[in-house]
Input
Amino acid sequence: MTGDSSNMPDIWTAFTGVIRRDVLLAWKRPGDVLNPLFFFAMVSTLFPLAIGPSPEQLQFSGPGVVWVAALLATLLSLNSLFLSDHEDGSLDQLILSPQPLPLLALGKSIAHWLTTGLPLVFVSPVIAVTFQMPSKTISIMMLTLAFGTVSLSLLGSIGAALTVGLHRGTALLSLLILPLAMPILIFGARTVSLSAADDAVTAGIYFLAAYCMLALTLAPFATAAALRISNE
Amino acid sequence: MWTWFHKLASPPHFYSLSATMIPWFAIPGIGLVAYGTYAGLFLAPADYQQGDAFRIIYVHVPAAYLSMMTYMVMAISAGIGLIWRIKLSHAVSAGAAPLGAWFTFLALITGSIWGRPMWGTWWEWGDPRLTSQLLMLFIYFGYMALRAAIDDPAKADKASGILAMVGAVNIPIIHFSVEWWSSLHQGATLVREGGPAMPVEMLYPLLANILGFTFIFGALLLGRVRTEVLFRERRKRWVRNLVFPEGGDA
Amino acid sequence: MNDAMAMGDYGAYVWSSFGLTLIVLAICVVQGVLRHKSVLRDVKTRIRAMESDQ
Output
């Protein structure tokens, strides 16, 4: 066995290594995790403030508001996904490493979800309660948000990779990702509304899960290709 | 055969060839649309359910069909450009985008105008086909915005190429949305089992317009790609010789 | 003739649709031609500037 190949980390270690690094970085900078959450909470608050606090209106608009707020909070957090790596050169290392780049891109996306989407799912019940959402609906909401935020992290990585380092990247990134995110929003919010009306939710959940699987299998390749292009 | 293909992909050849090809697309296109529009407006009998309002179909359906076809052209030529690194292919993609955006806009507006008397509303947010067509417009805008934001032309080509391919997921969604979900929008009329659900006096002008608009699109696209090629190659010798022929003075 | 224009009460809808289509197509043509001319003009200016320096 030559010295070189025995030092090279195997694929699994590389994958978990990418995730671990990003999660640790987020741990050291709690603001990165907390800011999107505060944003999520505040945007949700904007709607009752603007539209009026009547309980019927709150119940009616709750699912949509929570979902839009979650979408916006996620979009806001995506711009920095590759930005610091781009600036300090770690992105070059990532691209040049012998492990398959799509796998590493998947790792970045998962780390992003762990630090953005997952906390959001756990914070969402607090917001939902203020919108008079019944508890059965809240659990459906959390399930839709779980699938949805995973999809958003994956799709958002593509957008982030395409716009890394570009002037006014955030606005452009949102413009690119929103059309892909709209089906998620539609099905996510509508499914929660259906649950509140005691209607069948299985179709919506299946759609969200399917979209999530599609994103999981295809997005990393697009992200990897976009990273190579943006980093030239 | 491959020599012809290679020649086509060479910018100076394409530039001169496209000039001769444009009339071959424009003239049949205009002719077909002239017939289709006239026959559709004045010769076809009024629909028994929708009356004369149904005639909007003669512009709405071609626009909608072209909005999707243009996207496929844009995405496929982007893919060809990315995989086989053919610069002309990227130029085709760039030229197709604004045309596709216009067609999508036209489809949405004519559809909205048609919907007002038929469905009683200018817009229906719950309808999957309307929503996905709107999404398509946004995807076109995103594509053009991304191109504009990246300075390096080769990088812009590749990045927007990836975006075009990712957005292609929307096409089957638009097309099949009327089958998968309940929608105000009617289902397939032309390509379905048992043949088209339309009498020939109504059908022929529609087919003529669809085909005619496609030819016109071809002419428009050739023109745009031609300009794009000229711009991209502006520093090359063949452009210099073209603009100021040999021996000529500046 | 008036029957044709009226299109059975739907005249405004039908004619505005066709009119818009015509306008959009015209815009596409004009935009394309103008851009081509503009690129041609810029190329000529550039070449003249470069060659007059020599």
